[in-house]
Design goal:
Order of helices and strands: HHHHEEHHHEHEHEHHEEEEHEH
Number of helices: 13
Helix content: 40-55%
Structural class: alpha+beta
Largest sheet: 8 strands, mixed
CATH topology of the largest domain: Endonuclease, Chain A
CATH superfamily of the largest domain: Endonuclease Chain A
Number of domains: 2
Number of strands: 10
CATH class of the largest domain: Alpha Beta
Strand content: 15-25%
Length: 260
């Protein structure tokens, strides 16, 4: 039994799960496991024998230890648990919004959001969420923003700082260019000090030194009705890494404007 089948085998028993999670912290002898687990002595012995047979644990001098395989199984268990916690924190949000636009690497890393808040508007109102974004922008010294749609309210609120960056979808550039009546960079760039690039992006987000604001598209064809806001250090790292990955593949705005 290997791979996913071993993982499925371990999680099919709460006693086996409890054992591997305890052993992830430190090796433990059988007696200590029996004392600390909410299971009968025979259940612990049976679980240890089963785990050893599957190559998940081995009995060393200091007690039972995880094998390399066992530690990978524990990592999968922990990741599944944290993913479930992320979803159940606000299940309605994840049921009604699209995550398929997020790169797979960052979809897997969603538990790094930690504690978050969902800001809702009823009825759905893009401008209401723009006000939330404006508040965040006005408090930030610098930030990085990805804009899938044109939001004029951002213009005066965006931090005028050399480290600020704007990632526009092509439709935003085209809208601003049409409104301004010019094809020059000055007509497109709304913040003098901000660096600007162009890339197709299907969700909006802003990350500053202290907060993240994420606007995923709703499942239904309707205006954005909810916005995710997080302030944990891990959420900032997640969003910063996401922004860098998008930025690296984006096109300089001058290059886009020079297209025939």
């Amino acid at each position: 039994m290997h791979g996913d089948s071993v993982y499925a085998f371990v999680i099919s028993s709460s006693v086996r799960v409890d054992i591997v999670q305890r052993l992830a912290a430190t090796p433990q002898p059988t007696d200590e496991l029996i004392d600390h687990l909410d299971a009968s002595t025979s259940a612990v012995y049976t679980a240890l024998a089963d785990l050893e047979r599957q190559g998940v644990v081995f009995d060393g001098e200091a007690g039972w230890r995880l094998t390399g395989h066992g530690r990978l199984v524990v990592d999968l268990i922990d990741h599944r648990k944290s993913t479930v916690q992320t979803i159940t924190h606000d299940q309605d949000y994840w049921e009604t919004h699209r995550t398929d636009h997020l790169p797979r690497e960052f979809l897997r890393r969603l538990p790094e959001l930690g504690e978050y808040e969902i800001v809702r508007s009823e009825p759905p109102d893009v401008r209401a969420h723009a006000r939330v974004a404006v508040d965040l922008l006005e408090q930030a010294e610098s930030c990085r923003t990805a804009m899938p749609i044109h939001v004029p309210e951002y213009r005066n609120a965006f931090p005028d700082h050399p480290d600020s960056r704007l990632l526009f979808s092509p439709s935003v550039i085209d809208t601003v260019r049409a409104d301004s009546g010019t094809g020059t960079r000055d007509g497109i760039r709304q913040i003098d000090a901000a660096q600007c690039r162009v890339r197709n992006v299907q969700f909006g987000f802003t990350v500053s030194e202290s907060s993240l604001m994420l606007a995923l598209r709703p499942m239904a064809e309707s205006p954005v009705a909810s916005m995710l806001v997080a302030e944990t250090d891990s959420a900032i790292r997640w969003a910063s890494d996401l922004y860098e990955s998008l930025w690296e593949d984006a096109e300089p705005v001058e290059s886009y404007l020079d297209r025939p």
